[in-house]
User: Fold this.
Amino acid sequence: MARVHLQGINKIYGNGFHAVHDVSLEIEDGEFMVLVGPSGCAKSTLLRMIAGLESVSSGDLSIGEKRCNDVQPKDRGIAMVFQNYALYPHMTARQNLAFGLETSKKPRAEIEQRVNEAAELLEISELLDRKPGQMSGGQCQRVALGRAMVRKPEVFLFDEPLSNLDAKLRVSMRMRISRLHRQLKESGRPATMIYVTHDQVEAMTMGDRVCILKKGEIMQVDTPMNVYHRPKNKFVAEFIGSPSMNMLPGKLVHSGEQLCINTLGQTFPLPVEQQTALANHAGKMVFLGLRPEHIRIDNQDSKSSVTAHINGIEEMGSEAFVHFELKGHSVICKLISPEHTLRHGSEQTLSLRMDKCHIFDHETGVNLSLAQ
Ligand SMILES: Nc1ncnc2c1ncn2[C@@H]1O[C@H](COP(=O)(O)OP(=O)(O)OP(=O)(O)O)[C@@H](O)[C@H]1O
Ligand SMILES: [Mg+2]
Assistant:
């Protein structure tokens, strides 16, 4: 069993900087948990505390059933993969893979078997006699991953392992790590994986669950689908998804029996499903959140349409991001297979998919639409 539990964890660095604030997180045995957030939000600090490379200022850290706050890194049953590979430059790939096992005095035959097994799985068998300087970044990163694998840890810790690789290699390494996680599960010895990244695509595609951090505090822990479709607050809503969710400031108002939002000088009725959740918030200043795919150019007048001028088009091939100027606000709309009639500066009628909207408290950023 290698669940990892953090309970009320704080980190205050030697200079007095309070980097981690009361973080509680339960990572289950065999789970793939991604820690994601902007630079400086304390992803590495958290991971390094789990690894034992950084002390815990207060709170309880347990791995398996054991409290680990004061356990030596080598006795925690973990292996870590870093962004910069951290391979020994004077050793061959084979020696790098075997090093940790040799220092722990494993029998020679077993070391050889584990190294060959990992090399085969990672398709680096032909590279085993090369030194890091004779390999590409992607190959070095596979050796680094292999070095973690041969130790058969119960917990793998990854700190932005793919950020030095080009886009294509990142995709294939991403798949490889996900596959390794799946294979270990299928073979009956699942490994818990904790993966730090600032790349939301990695977070969404790799994680069983995603933990979104902001300035050392947890904003939401949930499945990738839920953080996308049911963001708890404005920070998560804007962080997850590309381009970001559009945010328009407004006010909740009653119009007859109906609850509406007043924004852009217009009044838009809110969806029936949200009327109850939002009923108590009438009169409040809020943000209307709409994902770029939930704004359509349909040039049809309706209760939820607005007119806007195009002030930028980003053609991506199969899709396009169209930037609009909307009464002093900029709004992005995502189109699949865009029509080529769209021109810079032209006026369009947009329809807002209000059934997909989120309403965020202007002050606290809490997603009011989710309240029951
Ligand atoms: N040794 C240290 N002493 C004081 N403050 C530190 C120390 N190490 C990190 N910090 C601060 O703690 C905060 C969290 O740093 P950390 O490296 O964990 O962030 P991160 O989320 O991994 O960022 P990045 O995405 O840039 O790697 C930052 O504000 C950083 O400046
Ligand atoms: Mg970091």
